[in-house]
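pasting for ref
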Amino acid sequence: MPSFLERGVCMKGPVSVGDKLDLNIIDLTNQGLGVGKVEGFTIFVEGGLPGDELIAEIKKTKKNFAEAKAVEIKNPSSKRQISECKYYKSCGGCQLHELNYRVQLDIKANMVKEAIERIGKLEDVKINPTIGMETPFRYRNKGMFKVAEKEGHISIGYFKNKSHEVVDEVLRWIGNPFLDKILPSIEFV
């Protein structure tokens, strides 16, 4: 007899699209998504940071996990901070501006350690702390920028999160200051 998967039937998790759930965010993925659990079922939450207590709305469900978006932060993590970039929420250029920078560095070192242990099957590997910057802004010296014309004006920047609308001012926050000199001199024919 064919299995459920061979017949195209998926087992349903404990959540459905549109559900709004109280979640505690316990971890962070390498894509910057918060990780929460309901009855052992994993939910990846856009806008969730470790330590947050929040309400998440389920956007997509799969057999072993669901994807959600934070709709209300009920009790913010002590690791949360206010981003200095006013485009952070709308731009798709950064994911972790609301996470304390020192915590970001610790999480990155831990991700390397876990990958070496899980993929490399090595144990007790010493991972040095991640080397940070004095100021975690104006750091990108390489990028693939989007170009668009809007109302007779040329915009160069990143796509607004989940859209094809170009946000050009964001380069002033994360792009190397050298870009401030280069970009105005570009001519389009």
